[in-house]
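Q: Got a minute? One more chain.
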Amino acid sequence: MSDAADRTTRCGVEVSSARVCGLPVEAHTPVNLCRHHLLVAHEWVSRDVGVTDTLESPCLACGSRLGVRYPSGWLCAVCEWKVGEIPDSGVVRARVDVVYYLRFDDRIKIGTSSNPKSRLGSIVHDELLGFELGGRKLERRRHAQFASHRLDSSEWFQVHDALLRHIRVVAAGVDDPWLLHKRWLSEKIALHG
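A: Always. Here it is, folded:
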């Protein structure tokens, strides 16, 4: 077997100054890491980005069952309330779910969040292209709509005419997507005020 072929099928992590891991790499793994070292890398990264999982009980602030686990504790994945903390009785917590469109290099991410400031702050991107009012259901519809241009099983898509046309429609008349999001939040608060 050639050195090039061996590097693409064996883990390349240096375990000592004279030896690499060399365990097999699973097919279609995007990096040359064996399962063990891939899990080590995942644990390392998840310290900053968290791991999404089901909460033991609904969030006290919004009722969601989805949470994000960080080393410091759990946050609700929807409203980012710290799990276990009791919300103040007089506080109006406006929640507006949005589908966001981010460009990075030659690809576009379609994702969703009820707290896009925080969510987008943790995603490397070049430009926020727009927001669309809606949550996971709408996000799934958009993923299905543009599925033929999806990159692997991620939320990233190739740039293509149909997606760009859709984003132009979503962003029409909006100079700053953040101002639109603020307007949606204030409308939500006014409805409950």
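A: Residues 98-192 form one domain.
Q: Perfect, thanks.
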